[in-house]
Amino acid sequence: MAGRNVLGIPIPSFGSKQTPPPPVGPPDPADLDGRNSIVNACIYRHGSRSSTLTSLEDTFRALHETPEGVAWIGLYRPDAGELGILAAEFGLHPLAVEDAITAHQRPKIERYDDVLFVVLRAANYIDETESVEFGELHVFVGPNFVITLRHAESPDLSHVRARMEQEHELLAYGPQAILYAIIDAVVDGYGPVVAGLSNDIDEIEEQVFVGESQVSRRIYQLSREVIAFERATHPLSDVMLSLEQGSAKYGVADELQRGLRDVADHLTSVNQRIDAYRELLRDILTVNSTLVGQRQNEEMAKMTEASLKQGDEVKKISSWAAILFGPSLIAGIYGMNFTHMPELSWWFGYPMALALMATTSVILYKVFKRRNWL
């Protein structure tokens, strides 16, 4: 059975074969409900800008009135109503429109008849926080239009539009050239991110060998950023491959094909660097764990050595206490001053007591010395 998406547009079942809804005339401005998420909307003809518009209604009308014109509409966080109007005007497939509304899509490319739907993930390195910020970009490319939908502040496509308006020969190739320029800008934006991650890894290596306590947390955070970056760049390789394979079939100009191959080469280099970073971070984490274990062992050895030294001191103190205890015991016994003590009146009592004290001390000293207590 067919269902409906969030726009209320019927979605065909997988077993059925239906075409997207046909284009209709310009919508009623009231349908926009006063909302306008247009960042920029222009009509181009033969590589030059012919008009700049501020509303979807004016853009549709100008496109209808411009023979061989191409509309480039840039939107920032449009709502379902605006996308529904665009879908009705340009025949966008309901499934692609639903993906554009939902966002949080992986990089991919899908073709619905003569309309391409491309999802890109831009990346931006933030120096202040030493982190990577990601932005999602959806692009609809048709015979005479390009629609870009941003769900984040990045990527900023203003410089892409400025570049294309200066390169009239490139812009004259139409919507395919605009798509190439957008992908090229996104991939070029990966360069500073790669450089920033490389610098972070160098800093982490220094922190690991210095022994900073918080380095493990930073390794983990950086590993997550590298994985997130990998999820943005690796699927894009499949997008580039699909564009390359479809170039001949859909009559893409040779100049654009060369440009796409150059972008694919840059993307391959980025992916190789990311793979190397993942392995390097895994090795750094292993080295850090080893160094932490070594430092713990060294601390334990120091504690054990200190305990042994303390034990030796205790043995010495105990040995001398025992040696002195013998004479003290004898002196204490003979110092009790009882009336009836057999040795009190004995002529040899005092010399014998001294001899007994000395003998006891010497015997104890030799015993403790033999046992290495002294």
Helix content range = 55-70%
What percent strand? Answer: 15-25%
| Total count of strands | 9
Distance between the termini: 95 Å
**Number of separate helices:** 10
Q: Determine the structural class based on helices, strands and strand pairing.
A: alpha+beta
Largest sheet: 7 strands, mixed
Rg is 42 Å
| Biggest β-sheet: strands ordered side by side in the sheet | 4-3-5-9-8-7-6
Polypeptide structure, described:
This protein is an alpha+beta fold and 374 residues long. It is 57% helix and 16% strand. The protein contains ten helices and nine strands. 26% of the residues are buried.
Descriptors:
single chain, seven-stranded mixed β-sheet, alpha+beta, disordered N terminus, 9 strands, 10 helices, 374 residues
What topology does this entry show?
Elements (H helix, E strand, L loop, with lengths): L2 E2 L5 E2 L26 E8 L2 E6 L2 H10 L3 E8 L3 H11 L3 H9 L5 E5 L2 E12 L4 E11 L3 E6 L7 H9 L1 H4 L3 H14 L1 H21 L4 H33 L6 H81 L14 H22 L4
Helix pairs in contact: 6-9, 7-8, 7-9, 8-9, 9-10
